[in-house]
Amino acid sequence: MTVTLAACSSGPGGFGVSKDRVYAPSVNARGQAEDGLIVGHRLMEAGQYELALNAFERAAAVDGLTPDVLNAIGTANIGLGRLGQAEQIFRRALREDETSPEIWNNLGVVLMERGQHSDAAEAFRRAFALDNGESVAIRDNLRLALEKIDNAGYVDLEQDYKIVRRGSSDYLIRTAG
Fold first, then answer.
1. Pick from 133, 83, 132: nearest CA to 108
2. What are residue 49's phi and psi, to 5 degrees?
């Protein structure tokens, strides 16, 4: 019986560092981690909803389930098509902060997607009032909801709803009618 053993060398394929390959930098264990909300919002903008959800959950582990974190988790769930979960999360966030126009708007988006146009219009009205009419995205969402109520028999093949987050950006979610 012949047994062959492979030797490990410091060259290619061995355990040593090869000069001809690129390796990731080492991790600084004392370094400051990037805020999970910031990372999640960047991932949302890139359309990476699952990764964004993971980042928002890390933010929840650090900051707790604040209304901002809940709002972010809800928006990621909308992007993933998990409307039931998103609705529950937004309603929980509103129990914590019922004065947030962003959360009311995002709840309205979910309700529109679920075909609850009257309830969505009411959520958008609250968001619009709390925002003092300053957000174009909220105004557009309210307009779309009211059009849906007025034209209940008309089916539009594509609609644009805007998800709003606290901060300087908003998200556009495209949906098929």
1. 83
2. -70, -40
Greater confidence (152 vs 63) lies with 63
| Residue 4 belongs to a domain | no
Least confident of 30-34, 118-122, 143-147: 30-34
Reading phi first (left if > 0) and then psi (alpha if -120 to 50, else beta), residue 135 is in: beta
Q: Structurally, how many domains does the chain consist of?
A: 1
Global pTM? 0.72
Question: Does a structural domain hold residue 3?
Answer: no
